[in-house]
Amino acid sequence: MLRSSRLRKVLRTGGLMAACALAGGALFSVSSVSSHTRRSSSSSGRSTAEGNSAALVTQGRQIFRFDDFGDNAFWSGALQLDKAIEGRSHGGVGPGVSPKTALSLGLKVDASALPHSVLSALKAGKVNLDSPATTLALIKLNAVVGVKGHFSRSGRMTSIGLTCAVCHSTVNNSVAPGVGQRHDGWPNRDLNVGAIISAAPNLKPVTDVLGVDLATVRKVLASWGPGKFDAELFMDGKAFQPDGRSAATLIPPAYGMAGVNLHTYTGWGSIPYWNAFVAILEMHGQGDFTDERLDDPVKFPIAAKNRFGHVRVHGGQRDLVRSKLPALQAYQLSLRAPHPPRGSFDRAAAARGERLFNGKATCASCHLPPTYTEPGWNMHRPAEVCEDAFQASRSPENAYRTTPLRGLGTRNRQDRRFYHDGRFHSLNQVVEHYNSCNRLALSARERSDLVEYLKSL
Ligand code: HEC
Ligand code: HEC
Q1: Ligand 2: distance of its center to the CA of 370 in Å?
Q2: Of 312, 307, 319, 324, which Cα lies nearest the Cα of 163?
Q3: Are residues 355 and 440 in the same domain?
Q4: What is the enclosing helix (H) or strand (E) of 26?
Q5: Confidence tier at 412 by pLDDT (50, 70, 90)
């Protein structure tokens, strides 16, 4: 708005040369645009708000992708994951992690971080994907999504940290499987977090906090499998469901969150609450965290014993999380859910399904468009969705949060696992579940129409 009205004025008064200079200025000097915005903002509050949010989103993207909040002290300093990546031949331990191994663990490579020469060599099959040296070079280029390398002046890797993007971003495979442009906010359902942690040479910090032996820790980590992580394990020490299945949950999307009140499958809190929780208690970043609910010794024995609800940075250390929460939140709110892939659902059936969703099938009594969760307290007792209480009872609210369904069409293509632990392997199964749970008496055709609608979200 601002720019076009200024453009009109320039065209009226100054002619083409001035307009070109302005366009060049806009292209080549972001700071001149923002100072222009700032100057003009006194007459219109709106432009200040727009400028603020644009700056926050840009800052938040950088944090989401590249900031490890000082967690390299844990992943490298304590667990020595960097040593496992380097391997013996580069001053670490073991065989090292080749790009092939990294990709097989579900790690992704950001093609836009690679120089053209590397990209074409990669396409021509001329990059050595069996050598840990290549992995180190990729980390140095900031190309391994969610893995932040720290390097000495001489270029030697001194440590690595993990960022939000390792779990909540993937790539579009445009160059090769696992190599392409970033998709921030998309859950990485290929990522084998358990296997990655298990590769660390020193798991003592993990055995110590869980109070179990190494064999048990390895068994638990191996039970997660791709696309899963157990954020509650380090609070309550529960690794398996009563029927023996892993207690880990699927990595959820970090898009489509705007307007959603409570977050996580069990509604632990808001976005900034959970971001601080994850950055400090899970990633082991450096910062203060408060939650007295974690003092409950019955529900959260490990958290209560270790006083996880009262984390304060040690004297002299800086808080590397707190100041980033505003921008990180703004960035997540800006991530829209992806549209369903073209031709991935039947439009006519989806239109019939939409009427069922909002009517006879009563889905919209909880999944209210446009967020597809409830405005307000979006929580339900397990019985309301005919579920066991295991995961719900591992959270302060003892309930399940209504999952926002935006982007379901894309997720249905990417990885067919639904509900917090991936217990349903198709949208048909989910609909069958509700059909019997709520005695909906949906015909086979109605059920399939409903599935087409879900695929369209
Ligand atoms: C090791 C993998 C991993 C990392 C790293 C990670 N997350 Fe998550 N994230 C998860 C899992 C698993 C959950 C589900 C937790 C639950 O419901 O108990 C989750 C939940 C979330 C949610 C809630 C989504 C919803 O549906 O409400 C948000 C938001 C989120 N993470 C953002 C972040 C941010 C920001 C970071 C970086 C500070 C981060 N995560 C780091 C795995 C991860
Ligand atoms: C009583 C509220 C309620 C109603 C009614 C309801 N849902 Fe849900 N829905 C939930 C909750 C809570 C979850 C999270 C369950 C979990 O993860 O364990 C959920 C999860 C889902 C999921 C899984 C999303 C994912 O990413 O894993 C789908 C799909 C879904 N619901 C579709 C439907 C459809 C279709 C209907 C109507 C037939 C429906 N829901 C009716 C509350 C409800």
Answers
A1: 15
A2: 324
A3: yes
A4: helix 15-28
A5: confident
Taking the centre of ligand 2 as the mean of its atom positions, its distance from the CA of residue 445, in whole angstroms, is: 20
Can you give the pTM of this predicted structure?
0.90
Is residue 150 situated within a structural domain?
yes
Higher pLDDT, 405 or 7: 405
* Domains held by the chain: number: 3
Query: Are 84 and 56 in the same domain?
Result: no
The candidate with the shortest Cα–Cα distance to 387, out of 422, 437, 341, is 437
Summarised one tens digit per residue, pLDDT across range 21-77 is 333 333 333 333 344 444 444 455 567 999 999 999 999 999 999 999 999 999 999
Give a yes or no: residue 132 inside a domain: yes
| 135-160: pLDDT as tens digits | 999 999 999 999 999 999 999 999 99
- On whether residue 206 sits in a domain, the answer given is no
Rg of the chain, C-alpha, whole Å: 24
Could you report how far apart the first and last alpha carbons of the chain are, in Å? 32
Which residue owns the Cα nearest ligand 2 atom 13?
A: 402
* Nearest ligand, measured from the Cα of 251: 1
Residue 358 Cβ contacting ligand 2 at under 6 Å: no
Residue 398, domain member (yes or no): yes
Token look-up 């069922």 returns 356
Q: Which of 63, 96, 112 is the last residue of a domain?
A: 63
Closest CA to 236 of 191, 290, 281: 281
Say which ligand is closest to the CA of 381. Answer: 2
Residues 6+ positions from 97 with CB-CB distance below 8 Å: 84, 85, 87, 105, 132, 135, 199
Q: Could you list the residue range(s) of the whole structural domain that residue 114 is in?
A: 80-191
Tell whether 87 and 178 lie within a shared domain: yes
Q: Do 53 and 87 have their domain in common?
A: no
pLDDT at 131: 95
Q: Could you tell me if 58 and 84 lie in one domain?
A: no
Q: Is 137 exposed, middle or buried (0-12, 13-18, 19+ CB in 10 A)?
A: middle
